């Protein structure tokens, strides 16, 4: 496996699970103490009338231990949302393996945009409306999707009654539209839910370096690659050093 430079990781939390895996998109069935894992993940799309293949993610590898609050940072367009969608099961990687403990929950930047129907299965089926599928095909695809994220038993539940009893939270720039007080409130609420349950793990996409104060660890990406991951303080120092290197010494 192609692991990027690692600033800190307790040795007992790093079982050698990736290298023995086939290079497929199946879940790796990672060790119990690793909640989220990506191994050599690549993602590309075909652009310009199906002629050019554009890479978005390049050999991304990382491991996030259970019960920790991690952040995903990097410049605009480096691939953070794409990586999060792959972890959520919303996109398939072009190659590489992914493991995320279940049930998992993905929250978009604007949560109001992600729930449109009253029940869980109807909401999932809504996204299939643009394809010409039979009712049986829709039912079968909805079942597969709900099984994939560990929510099959909740298919008839009202979306309003879903609890936050998931094991993994994947959160994409939740605080973008919030004022400073509410930003802090949300981040503290996530931190608090992790502190009260050792089983919950969260990965939070952000641009705000100051939010790293609440994190256990972080992943820093550039140009589709995981450049560094490890404890939050080290990643913050790393990014700050990069930023200051770009500032001119004198005008
Ligand atoms: N299916 C696709 N079609 C076209 N472009 C795509 C596709 N998937 C990803 N991209 C491009 O890949 C790049 C990475 O996008 P992504 O949204 O993952 O980045 P990001 O780091 O989350 O950016 P931001 O911080 O601005 O939200 C962007 O340039 C995006 O336009």
UniProtKB/TrEMBL annotation:
CDD domains: ABC_cobalt_CbiO_domain1 (cd03225). Keywords: ATP-binding, Nucleotide-binding, Transport. PANTHER family: ABC TRANSPORTER I FAMILY MEMBER 10. Pfam families: ABC_tran. The keyword Transport applies. This is ABC transporter I member 10. SUPFAM superfamilies: P-loop containing nucleoside triphosphate hydrolases. Residues 36-248 form the ABC transporter domain. The keyword ATP-binding applies. It comes from the Eukaryota.
